[in-house]
Amino acid sequence: MQELEWGHPRLTKLTVVEDLRERKRLMLSGTDAVVALPGGCGTLEELFETITLKRLAVYLKPIILVNTRRFFDPCTQLLAHCVEERFMNPKHLDMWTIVESPDDVLQAISASREWTEEARQFAAVSAGS
After folding, report:
1. What confidence tier does 70 reach under pLDDT thresholds 50, 70, 90?
2. pTM
3. What distance, in Å, lies between the first and last C-alpha atoms of the chain?
C-alpha cells in the first residue's frame, strides 16, 4: 500500500509492515477495541478475522460495528443465520456491539461486556447442542 502512496501525508505516525498478516497482528496488539466502519473486502476480512479470534478467546477486547446507513445489517443477519444453522453458539452474538454513529463508539466500548478466555468452552458447537 505504501508503494501505491495510500499513506495519508499528514499522519503523525505511519508503520510500514511486510505483509497483511503482520499488519493485522499489529492492529490487534495493544488495542482497547476494534471499530469497524463501512468498507470493502479488506474491512470485512479484518472484521471476520477479529470475530474469529474473539470466538476462540484469542482476542478479548470489544468489537464495535458502526452501522452507518445500516451498512452492517446484511453481515449481522448472516452471522445470526450461522447461529440458526448451529455453526455458532447463540453466545457468539455477544461478541460485537452495533452503533449507528461514530459518536456512539466510545460509550459502546465502555459499556461492552467482558469477553474472557472461558469463552473457549463454547468456541465449538457440539453435535448435541
Report:
1. very high
2. 0.83
3. 44
